[in-house]
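Key result, reporting period 2: structure in, sequence out.
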């Protein structure tokens, strides 16, 4: 594996995963229709980590703070007193889940995951980041900056009790709120995953109806409509905390679209190649539960991506890095 001394001498391959179990599920998903995907995370995550280790690939696991708790008692005592009061109360996990969750991971593997976090801690090359404490929605009506600050303090605190130092953040549902970046700085979080530029307020699809936006995103996963969405390290270095934007969401395997799955994979491989050749950052992300169905097909795709990274590393010095490593290197350089 080629290693470069100067961080600008090679492109960077970043992987981040939104690790949330059932806390971040959409309103239409229930234990009846999606529970098997959540349960499969106990098979998927160890296998995924092993694939990363086999190819010497590092990943950032952005973990909901709730998942650190050993039991319901610890979960409740770790919650901030000042919780978000969303106008849409169905978004609040404190309302949706707390009365029905079990006592611990053994009785409720949908809402607790301390054993999986301990597993991650055995692999120092993998980063544990935060996905906020409560899967916090930063753009919803009813919540405030103080709510967010207290939520993040709770996430950092419970992680510290388990021996995890939080330095990176992924905003739940990619609800990026620029006004909240000062809170990240105050609390020592040095990097976050921003959105692709095409989805920013000044982006192409910003004012289009949601159905059209979803259709565009789906088509863009198979055909290059928005570009490779790669980034220069020097641009990332311009502001703190460092914005390490996403390049592509790794969609789960679709049996219905099986005939064109090769196009989706090639879309990712071509983006990685472009980043490696041009010394840019390529940031791929997904959720562990996305691999809960069609596991063999999903892992076949993942290993093809990781194998392609290995070739790019040998040929161009393309490097795997966590979000935390990039922010640390930039901070040291500056």
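The corresponding designed sequence is given below.
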């Amino acid at each position: 594996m080629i290693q470069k001394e100067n961080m600008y001498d090679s492109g960077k391959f970043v992987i981040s995963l939104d690790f949330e179990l059932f806390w971040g599920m959409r309103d239409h998903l229930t234990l009846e229709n999606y529970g098997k995907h959540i349960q499969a995370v106990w098979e998927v995550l160890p296998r995924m980590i092993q694939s990363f280790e086999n190819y010497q690939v590092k990943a950032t696991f952005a973990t909901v703070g709730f998942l650190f708790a050993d039991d319901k008692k610890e979960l409740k005592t770790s919650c901030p007193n000042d919780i978000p009061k969303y106008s849409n109360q169905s978004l609040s996990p404190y309302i949706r889940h707390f009365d029905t969750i079990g006592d611990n991971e053994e009785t409720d593997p949908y809402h607790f995951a301390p054993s999986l976090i301990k597993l991650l801690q055995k692999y120092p090359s993998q980063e544990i980041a935060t996905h906020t404490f409560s899967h916090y929605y930063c753009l919803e009506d009813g919540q405030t900056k103080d709510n967010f600050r207290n939520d993040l303090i709770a996430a950092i605190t419970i992680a510290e009790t388990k021996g995890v130092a939080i330095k990176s953040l992924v905003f739940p549902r990619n609800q990026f709120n620029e006004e909240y970046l000062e809170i990240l700085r105050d609390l020592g979080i040095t990097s976050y995953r921003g959105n692709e530029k095409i989805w920013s307020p000044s982006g192409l699809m910003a004012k289009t109806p949601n159905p059209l936006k979803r259709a565009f995103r789906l088509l863009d996963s198979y055909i290059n409509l928005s570009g490779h969405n790669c980034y220069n390290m020097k641009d990332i270095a311009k502001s703190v905390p460092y914005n390490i934007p996403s390049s592509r969401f790794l969609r789960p395997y679709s049996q219905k679209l099986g005939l064109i799955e090769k196009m989706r994979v090639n879309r990712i491989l071509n983006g990685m190649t472009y980043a490696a050749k041009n010394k840019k950052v390529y940031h791929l992300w997904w959720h562990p539960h996305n691999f809960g169905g069609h596991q063999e097909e999903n892992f076949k795709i993942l290993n093809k991506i990781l194998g392609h990274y290995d070739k790019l590393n040998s040929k161009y010095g393309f490097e795997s890095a966590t979000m935390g490593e990039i922010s640390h290197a930039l901070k040291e350089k500056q």
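The chain has one domain: 12-333. DSSP finds twelve helices and nine strands in the chain. This case is discussed further under Risks and Mitigation.
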